[in-house]
Amino acid sequence: MLESMTGYGSAERVENGVRILAELRSVNNRFAEIGVKLPRQLSAYELEVRDLVRSRFQRGKISVFIQLQAERDQSISVVVNSAKVKAYRDLLETVRVEAGIAAPVSLEHLLKFSEIFDTETGREENSGWLWSVVRDVLPEAADALKAMRRREGEELSQDFEARMAGIEATLVAIRRLAADNLEQIRSRLAAKVEGIAGRDIAYNRERLEMELVLAADRLDITEELTRFASHNKFFLEELHNSESGTGRKLNFLLQEQLREANTIASKSQSAEISQQIVHIKEELEKIREQLQNIE
Q1: Whether 225 contacts 277, CB under 8 Å
Q2: 260 pLDDT exceeds 80?
Q3: Helices (DSSP H) in the chain: which residue ranges?
Q4: Which of 24, 110, 150, 160 maximizes the CB count within 10 A of its CB?
Q5: Is 245 helix (H, G, I), strand (E, B) or coil?
Q6: Per-residue confidence (pLDDT) for residue 161, from 0 to 100
Q7: Backbone region of residue 55 per phi and psi (left: phi > 0; alpha: psi in -120 to 50; beta: other values)
């Protein structure tokens, strides 16, 4: 099953009057890049958050946001962080002395630093129970993101299948054109042999006929058409592969399909076949663009 690299997922829980919200946003990226934004009291758990998210996704630039909000009907107890008050006071006093300012440090100066106040949920000793809740909520948000990425991947898969069906139909038409074209080429070459045979020219007929057969074989695209059909089959099978790395495998198969298309175009001497190959390459290019969004 294909999985897109774009999506959104969230989950939340309320405990002890605090609403814990986890949000994940994902966009395209060649590798797994995890960005984390945590409230101050959970900053020590950034590595754990990264590892938890990374274990669920192979590719994509994923932004993780954890928010803490007090419930509206919940009274919040605010306390003074004495250690920070003293630290800021000492820092301001040093600045005052170094700057040669006579006015003393006042309460107004200290109130500019919001860190001197703590809510009950913001106190560092509460980080333990907050993290235990986040550790439960975050996987739910990750699962929601993965579900959305899979839904988008399923839509892309259906589009790929429709385009592949069109390419298969075009290849069938090319195969018919190629058979007629090859017969025309052989007839034309045979006529040239007969034309040479009617002249008073010394030549080795067997060698000439062999060279003409080889020339016709070099223009035969049957082998390329067979390989192209095989790549199409593997591409469709890979669309429903549940293993990781599907996007990379599909990209490889698409490159092989483009290689066969280019070879057919270079070998064929039919304008009709060339037009059909242009259409196929246009479809493959559309698929290639969309594959950049597949994990």
Answers
A1: no
A2: yes
A3: 46-54, 82-99, 107-110, 127-197, 205-218, 222-239, 246-267, 271-291
A4: 24
A5: coil
A6: 94
A7: alpha
* Alpha carbon distance 133, 187 (integer Å): 80
Distance CA 16, CA 7 (A): 31
Which residues are registered as beta bridge partners of 119? 78
Which tops the pLDDT comparison, 192 or 221?
221
Q: Which helix (H) or strand (E) holds 4?
A: none
* pTM beyond 0.90: no
3-class DSSP state of 28: coil
Angle at 46 between CA 44 and CA 49, to 5 degrees: 130
How many Å is the Cα radius of gyration of the chain? 35
Cα 160 vs. chain centroid, distance in angstroms? 15
Give the pLDDT score at 33.
93
Interatomic CA distance for residues 190 and 60, integer angstroms: 59
Angstrom distance (rounded) from CA 1 to CA 3: 7
Q: Mean pLDDT across the chain, nearest whole number?
A: 83
Supply 33's token pair. Answer: 């890049």
Q: Which residue has the higher pLDDT, 41 or 55?
A: 55
Average pLDDT of the segment spanning 12-34: 90
Quick check: helix, strand or coil at residue 114? helix
